[in-house]
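ping. complex inputs:
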Amino acid sequence: MANIHATFTVERSYSHTPEKVFAAFTNSEKMRRWFADGDHHDVLVFVHDFRVGGAQNLKYRFNASTQFSGVELANDGAYEDIVPNERVVITSTMTFGDKRISVSLITLEIVPAANGTTLTCTNQSVYFDGADGPEMRKMGWQSLLDKLALELEK
Amino acid sequence: MNITNVLHALGDPTRRAIVEQLGTGPRSVSHLAEPLNITLTAVAQHLQILQACGLVTTSKSGRTRNCRVNPAGFLLLGNWLSYQQSLWSRRLDRLGDILDEP
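pong. complex structure:
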Protein backbone atom coordinates (compact mmCIF):
# COMPACT_ATOMS: atom_id res chain seq x y z
CA MET A 1 0.00 0.00 0.00
CA ALA A 2 1.19 3.49 -0.78
CA ASN A 3 2.37 5.92 1.84
CA ILE A 4 0.15 8.92 2.42
CA HIS A 5 1.33 12.52 2.61
CA ALA A 6 -0.86 14.97 4.45
CA THR A 7 -0.65 18.51 5.76
CA PHE A 8 -2.76 20.28 8.35
CA THR A 9 -2.56 23.69 9.96
CA VAL A 10 -3.73 24.81 13.38
CA GLU A 11 -3.78 28.52 14.23
CA ARG A 12 -4.40 30.47 17.43
CA SER A 13 -4.33 34.14 18.35
CA TYR A 14 -3.07 35.17 21.77
CA SER A 15 -3.31 38.57 23.39
CA HIS A 16 0.35 38.45 24.36
CA THR A 17 3.60 39.53 22.75
CA PRO A 18 5.67 37.19 20.52
CA GLU A 19 8.36 37.33 23.22
CA LYS A 20 5.98 35.94 25.81
CA VAL A 21 4.78 33.22 23.42
CA PHE A 22 8.38 32.25 22.63
CA ALA A 23 9.17 32.14 26.36
CA ALA A 24 6.71 29.23 26.64
CA PHE A 25 9.19 27.28 24.50
CA THR A 26 12.40 28.29 26.25
CA ASN A 27 10.99 27.56 29.70
CA SER A 28 11.05 23.75 30.02
CA GLU A 29 8.46 23.64 32.78
CA LYS A 30 6.00 25.71 30.73
CA MET A 31 6.79 23.74 27.57
CA ARG A 32 6.05 20.49 29.34
CA ARG A 33 2.73 21.80 30.60
CA TRP A 34 1.36 22.86 27.21
CA PHE A 35 3.16 20.46 24.90
CA ALA A 36 3.37 17.20 26.82
CA ASP A 37 0.83 17.14 29.65
CA GLY A 38 -2.81 16.25 29.09
CA ASP A 39 -5.82 14.96 30.97
CA HIS A 40 -5.96 11.69 29.06
CA HIS A 41 -2.41 10.39 29.33
CA ASP A 42 0.54 9.99 31.65
CA VAL A 43 3.83 11.43 30.43
CA LEU A 44 6.54 8.74 30.63
CA VAL A 45 9.36 10.62 28.90
CA PHE A 46 9.80 14.32 28.16
CA VAL A 47 13.10 15.54 26.75
CA HIS A 48 13.20 19.15 25.59
CA ASP A 49 16.73 20.13 24.60
CA PHE A 50 15.77 23.47 23.11
CA ARG A 51 18.62 24.32 20.74
CA VAL A 52 19.17 23.68 17.03
CA GLY A 53 19.97 19.98 16.72
CA GLY A 54 18.70 19.34 20.26
CA ALA A 55 16.47 16.35 20.93
CA GLN A 56 12.76 16.36 21.53
CA ASN A 57 11.37 13.13 22.97
CA LEU A 58 7.90 12.55 24.26
CA LYS A 59 6.44 9.26 25.34
CA TYR A 60 3.01 8.96 26.84
CA ARG A 61 0.54 6.30 27.90
CA PHE A 62 -3.20 6.79 27.62
CA ASN A 63 -4.97 6.55 30.97
CA ALA A 64 -8.23 4.98 32.06
CA SER A 65 -10.25 8.05 31.03
CA THR A 66 -9.82 6.96 27.38
CA GLN A 67 -10.75 3.88 25.45
CA PHE A 68 -7.07 3.41 24.62
CA SER A 69 -6.01 2.85 28.20
CA GLY A 70 -2.48 1.43 28.38
CA VAL A 71 -1.56 2.23 24.77
CA GLU A 72 1.80 3.98 24.47
CA LEU A 73 2.75 6.60 21.88
CA ALA A 74 6.22 8.03 21.36
CA ASN A 75 7.38 11.11 19.46
CA ASP A 76 11.11 11.29 18.85
CA GLY A 77 12.78 14.06 16.96
CA ALA A 78 14.84 17.21 17.00
CA TYR A 79 14.65 20.98 16.88
CA GLU A 80 15.84 21.79 13.36
CA ASP A 81 15.59 25.56 13.45
CA ILE A 82 14.96 28.14 16.14
CA VAL A 83 14.64 31.88 15.50
CA PRO A 84 13.77 33.58 18.82
CA ASN A 85 10.28 35.12 18.85
CA GLU A 86 9.71 34.07 15.22
CA ARG A 87 10.03 30.40 14.36
CA VAL A 88 10.54 26.88 15.71
CA VAL A 89 10.92 23.92 13.33
CA ILE A 90 10.73 20.33 14.58
CA THR A 91 11.11 16.99 12.84
CA SER A 92 9.52 14.08 14.65
CA THR A 93 8.61 10.43 14.26
CA MET A 94 5.58 8.80 15.84
CA THR A 95 5.82 5.26 17.15
CA PHE A 96 2.82 3.27 18.22
CA GLY A 97 3.68 0.16 20.23
CA ASP A 98 6.66 -1.15 18.28
CA LYS A 99 5.45 0.25 14.97
CA ARG A 100 6.63 3.49 13.41
CA ILE A 101 3.58 5.12 11.88
CA SER A 102 4.62 8.56 10.68
CA VAL A 103 7.34 11.16 10.25
CA SER A 104 6.43 14.84 10.53
CA LEU A 105 7.89 18.23 9.77
CA ILE A 106 6.29 20.73 12.16
CA THR A 107 6.72 24.47 11.67
CA LEU A 108 5.56 26.84 14.42
CA GLU A 109 5.41 30.46 13.25
CA ILE A 110 5.09 33.27 15.76
CA VAL A 111 3.73 36.38 14.03
CA PRO A 112 2.93 39.74 15.64
CA ALA A 113 -0.74 40.68 15.25
CA ALA A 114 -2.83 43.77 16.05
CA ASN A 115 -3.80 42.55 19.49
CA GLY A 116 -0.88 40.29 20.26
CA THR A 117 0.43 37.25 18.43
CA THR A 118 -0.76 34.67 15.95
CA LEU A 119 0.79 31.23 16.29
CA THR A 120 0.51 28.95 13.27
CA CYS A 121 1.42 25.28 13.47
CA THR A 122 1.85 23.55 10.12
CA ASN A 123 2.22 19.79 10.26
CA GLN A 124 3.46 18.02 7.12
CA SER A 125 3.61 14.26 7.50
CA VAL A 126 4.11 11.00 5.74
CA TYR A 127 1.97 8.20 7.17
CA PHE A 128 3.12 4.65 6.63
CA ASP A 129 1.13 1.51 5.94
CA GLY A 130 -1.22 0.72 8.80
CA ALA A 131 -0.94 4.22 10.21
CA ASP A 132 -3.55 6.51 11.71
CA GLY A 133 -5.61 9.59 10.79
CA PRO A 134 -5.07 10.97 7.29
CA GLU A 135 -4.51 7.56 5.77
CA MET A 136 -7.76 6.31 7.14
CA ARG A 137 -9.54 9.39 5.84
CA LYS A 138 -7.92 8.98 2.46
CA MET A 139 -9.27 5.45 2.29
CA GLY A 140 -12.77 6.78 2.65
CA TRP A 141 -13.30 6.04 6.29
CA GLN A 142 -15.33 9.14 6.83
CA SER A 143 -17.85 8.10 4.19
CA LEU A 144 -17.82 4.62 5.63
CA LEU A 145 -18.59 5.95 9.09
CA ASP A 146 -21.40 8.02 7.57
CA LYS A 147 -22.78 4.90 5.96
CA LEU A 148 -22.48 3.14 9.28
CA ALA A 149 -24.51 5.86 10.97
CA LEU A 150 -27.26 5.44 8.37
CA GLU A 151 -27.11 1.69 8.83
CA LEU A 152 -27.57 2.03 12.58
CA GLU A 153 -30.62 4.23 12.12
CA LYS A 154 -32.47 1.50 10.23
CA MET B 1 -11.04 -4.83 22.23
CA ASN B 2 -8.25 -2.32 21.81
CA ILE B 3 -7.15 0.26 19.25
CA THR B 4 -3.91 -1.57 18.39
CA ASN B 5 -5.92 -4.55 17.16
CA VAL B 6 -8.37 -2.33 15.27
CA LEU B 7 -5.55 -0.52 13.43
CA HIS B 8 -3.79 -3.79 12.73
CA ALA B 9 -6.99 -5.29 11.32
CA LEU B 10 -7.55 -2.29 9.04
CA GLY B 11 -3.93 -2.31 7.88
CA ASP B 12 -4.85 -5.10 5.46
CA PRO B 13 -6.43 -4.13 2.11
CA THR B 14 -8.64 -7.25 1.90
CA ARG B 15 -10.04 -6.64 5.36
CA ARG B 16 -10.71 -3.01 4.48
CA ALA B 17 -12.58 -4.20 1.39
CA ILE B 18 -14.68 -6.52 3.56
CA VAL B 19 -15.51 -3.68 5.95
CA GLU B 20 -16.37 -1.35 3.03
CA GLN B 21 -18.78 -3.97 1.67
CA LEU B 22 -20.41 -4.42 5.06
CA GLY B 23 -20.77 -0.65 5.28
CA THR B 24 -23.52 -0.90 2.67
CA GLY B 25 -25.38 -3.62 4.57
CA PRO B 26 -25.11 -7.14 6.01
CA ARG B 27 -23.67 -9.86 3.75
CA SER B 28 -23.24 -13.61 3.89
CA VAL B 29 -19.70 -15.02 3.83
CA SER B 30 -20.11 -16.23 0.25
CA HIS B 31 -21.41 -12.83 -0.87
CA LEU B 32 -18.32 -11.25 0.66
CA ALA B 33 -15.98 -13.71 -1.04
CA GLU B 34 -17.38 -13.24 -4.55
CA PRO B 35 -16.23 -9.69 -5.49
CA LEU B 36 -12.94 -10.17 -3.62
CA ASN B 37 -12.13 -13.23 -5.67
CA ILE B 38 -10.81 -15.15 -2.68
CA THR B 39 -11.77 -18.48 -1.10
CA LEU B 40 -14.38 -18.87 1.62
CA THR B 41 -11.62 -20.07 3.93
CA ALA B 42 -9.62 -16.89 3.35
CA VAL B 43 -12.69 -14.73 4.04
CA ALA B 44 -13.37 -16.69 7.23
CA GLN B 45 -9.82 -16.03 8.44
CA HIS B 46 -10.13 -12.30 7.78
CA LEU B 47 -13.54 -12.26 9.46
CA GLN B 48 -12.07 -13.87 12.54
CA ILE B 49 -9.59 -11.01 12.91
CA LEU B 50 -12.28 -8.37 12.23
CA GLN B 51 -14.54 -10.01 14.78
CA ALA B 52 -11.87 -10.30 17.44
CA CYS B 53 -11.14 -6.55 17.32
CA GLY B 54 -14.81 -5.57 17.43
CA LEU B 55 -15.32 -4.29 13.87
CA VAL B 56 -17.61 -7.06 12.63
CA THR B 57 -20.16 -9.44 14.13
CA THR B 58 -21.46 -12.64 12.57
CA SER B 59 -24.49 -14.80 13.24
CA LYS B 60 -25.57 -18.12 11.85
CA SER B 61 -29.00 -18.71 10.31
CA GLY B 62 -29.38 -22.25 9.05
CA ARG B 63 -26.36 -22.99 6.89
CA THR B 64 -25.58 -19.37 6.17
CA ARG B 65 -23.26 -17.18 8.23
CA ASN B 66 -24.28 -13.52 8.07
CA CYS B 67 -21.88 -10.68 8.73
CA ARG B 68 -22.51 -7.10 9.72
CA VAL B 69 -20.53 -4.15 11.04
CA ASN B 70 -20.11 -3.90 14.80
CA PRO B 71 -20.51 -0.28 15.94
CA ALA B 72 -18.27 -0.85 18.99
CA GLY B 73 -15.07 -1.09 16.96
CA PHE B 74 -15.97 1.94 14.86
CA LEU B 75 -16.72 4.06 17.90
CA LEU B 76 -13.29 3.19 19.24
CA LEU B 77 -11.66 4.03 15.91
CA GLY B 78 -13.58 7.31 15.62
CA ASN B 79 -12.53 8.37 19.09
CA TRP B 80 -8.94 7.53 18.33
CA LEU B 81 -8.91 9.56 15.13
CA SER B 82 -10.50 12.60 16.70
CA TYR B 83 -8.04 12.38 19.57
CA GLN B 84 -5.11 12.37 17.15
CA GLN B 85 -6.50 15.14 14.98
CA SER B 86 -7.08 17.48 17.88
CA LEU B 87 -3.71 16.94 19.58
CA TRP B 88 -2.18 20.20 18.34
CA SER B 89 -5.42 22.06 18.84
CA ARG B 90 -5.43 21.14 22.52
CA ARG B 91 -1.73 21.95 22.83
CA LEU B 92 -2.21 25.48 21.52
CA ASP B 93 -5.24 25.96 23.80
CA ARG B 94 -3.13 24.94 26.80
CA LEU B 95 -0.40 27.34 25.68
CA GLY B 96 -3.03 30.10 25.68
CA ASP B 97 -4.01 29.20 29.24
CA ILE B 98 -0.38 29.34 30.35
CA LEU B 99 0.17 32.71 28.65
CA ASP B 100 -2.89 34.09 30.42
CA GLU B 101 -1.50 33.20 33.84
CA PRO B 102 -0.58 36.24 35.90
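The interface with chain A takes residues 2-4, 7-8, 10-11, 13, 16, 19-20, 23-25, 69, 71, 74-81, 83-85, 88-100 of chain B (CB under 8 Å).
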